[in-house]
Amino acid sequence: MPELPEVEAARRAIAEHCVGKKVRRSVVADDSKVIEGISPSELESALTGKTIVAALRKGKNLWLRLDSPPFPSFQFGMTGAVYIKGVAVTKYKRSAVSDNDEWPSKFSKVFMELEDGLELSFTDKRRFARVRLLQDPETVPPISELGPDAMLEPLQIDELVEALSRRKTAIKALLLDQSFVSGIGNWIADEVLYQARIHPQQIASNLSKGDCEALHRCMTKYAVEVDADCSSFPIGWLFHYRWGNKPGTVNDSSQYPSNWIFHSREKKPGKAFVDGKRIEFIAVGGRTSAYVPELQKLTGAKSVKAKSNPSRNSKSDEEDEDEGSEGEELEKEKEIKNTQPKKDKNVKVDSHRQQKKAGDSVDNTEEDDEEEKPKKKSGKKPLKTNKLQRKVVKAKTEVESSKRSESDEISTRQRKKTRK
User: Fold this and answer.
1) Does the annotation count 145 as an active-site position?
2) Is 8 annotated as catalytic?
3) From the candidates 50, 58, 60, 332, which is the catalytic residue?
4) Which terminal residue of the chain has fewer beta carbons within 10 Å of its beta carbon, N or C?
5) What DSSP letter does each residue of 119-179 carry, written as one string?
6) pLDDT tens for residues 325-379?
7) What is the DSSP letter of 258?
8) 22 part of the active site
9) More confident: 25 or 223
10) 59: left (phi > 0), else alpha (psi -120 to 50), else beta?
11) Averaged pLDDT for residues 262-286
12) How big, in percent rounded to 5, are the helix, strand and coil portions of the chain?
């Protein structure tokens, strides 16, 4: 899904090309799933004739400040994207609209034509984005619920250490929690943790001071200015935009350093490597996570175990929940499952058969003893087995027979005496 770099690129493009211009005409799609809480005609009326004063962003949310409220806000979701005709902004692979497609695109949700003829369109292929019309976007959800922006409001090292010490959750899941810090998405979190050499399942409160410092370096904005040091840690590089031939553009991933895990995240398990080291994929916080076992090791007694079948109920924000249903994420998780050893269903059956076979060689007296034991039935007294009953009857018969024999013998002796 579009993460902070893509949303920031869109904000900068609007700030450079659209701020100070009046909206001559607007067209809003009749899509109540994306256009939230307002009709298309109401949003068109709120935009038309207004001047764009500023383009603002927090986390993965962008909004336009007009010369009077209300203001339109855009939550990009999985495939939201901003296009300005004739200006290259950014092309996120899941949301990119081909240059050969009709303009405005059939996926356009909000279209604006400015007074100088420039045209702006917000598109969404999969309809997970949200467009709202708000009096003050910063004071109401979802923006008011966001944590400090990873780029604009970076945590100080002491603040980060203190915040991590109170969290008993996996560090990867915590980075995705937009109420903790906003703007970091799935692949950025993987990159930050890889560069900081921290395992994604590591419990946040168990991180050493050195780990916290490394994480802080990787989350801090290092370069924004043109020609700044691009060899710094990931987040700094992500916030560094080379303005190049087309101002406002974010170039393709080939400009990212080659020692980034980023380049191999989309490869299949067993075929993904970075600097010759194997990349493995696990699920942490319900999200597919890439890491390098050789460099990112679990420390301490406690850690969060990976789930082979993660629940989609655990989410960091609305966009992350949406991305959880993305086909590519599901395919990756299937591949992860397939690489794990499968349990042999026949093991239990075979073990039982072996035990039974071994039992055949045991003396039958053991089985007889078992047979002679009273069998219990719920709510009733134990009943004797037939074999035991037969033995008791036989014993009684023998006693009675013996008594009869003795009695007969005495009677015979008495009769003989009488005769004499």
Assistant:
1) no
2) no
3) 60
4) C
5) EEEEEESSS--EEEEES-GGGSTTGGG---BTTTSPPPHHHHHHHHHT--SBHHHHHH-TT
6) 344 454 555 555 555 555 554 444 444 444 444 444 434 434 344 444 444 444 5
7) T
8) no
9) 25
10) left
11) 89
12) 35, 15, 45
